[in-house]
Design brief:
Elements lengths: L2 H19 L5 E5 L3 H6 L14 H5 L21 E5 L12 H7 L4 E7 L1 H14 L3 E10 L3 H11 L4 E3 L4 H7 L1
Parallel strand pairs: 1-2, 3-4, 4-5
Length: 176
């Protein structure tokens, strides 16, 4: 595994532990499909329709595949919200109604981290902003394969979210 990816996951895991200690709800989300969900992806979906035609790649994104599992450093803990998605963003075309789950739990603010900045993080920020969540993107808990994409999007996100560093989180929680 890539050492920088492991370092990011370890850091994100420590931030999740800190958040739990403050009573903040943790939601984990992963891309994982059932066979019928793969078959139902329309050919117009450039990102995921190729799974229908590449069984070896599809096998890596099935619910039970090791490649689709959470990294050990961010394994969900008891009480965490565990979500699954089969699109880049979590709110639309997901097997569960993420927005309803969050609303039922009184969640109106999201601290967002993830891989990749140009994929899942971007989709989450745009979708969540359109659903009127208060958003904080935790920059040092995000990564992208292209540094320039990550840096550009952190600037772009300021139109929809406050971009913070994990060192800023204590102050945010104390502000209420």
């Amino acid at each position: 595994m890539d050492p920088s990816f492991d370092a990011l996951m370890n850091h994100a895991g420590s931030i999740a532990q800190w958040a739990r200690s403050k009573g903040i709800a943790i939601a984990h989300c992963r891309v994982a499909f059932t066979e019928s969900e793969i078959a139902a992806v329309p050919d117009t979906n450039q990102t995921f329709s190729q799974l229908k035609h590449d069984p070896s790649r599809a096998a890596k994104l099935t619910i039970d595949a090791a490649e689709a599992a959470f990294h050990p450093a961010v394994t969900p803990q008891e009480g965490d919200i565990v979500l699954r998605k089969h699109r880049v963003g979590p709110f639309f075309n997901a097997p569960q109604d993420v927005h309803a789950i969050f609303k039922e739990k009184g969640i109106d603010t999201l601290l967002i981290g993830g891989v990749s900045t140009g994929g899942a993080v971007l989709a989450t920020v745009v979708q969540a902003a359109d659903l009127d969540y208060r958003l904080f993107v935790v920059e040092d808990c995000c990564a992208d394969t292209k540094t320039e994409t990550h840096e550009f999007l952190m600037s772009f996100f300021t139109k929809r979210a406050k971009v913070v560093n994990s060192d800023d989180l204590n102050a945010l929680v104390n502000e209420g």
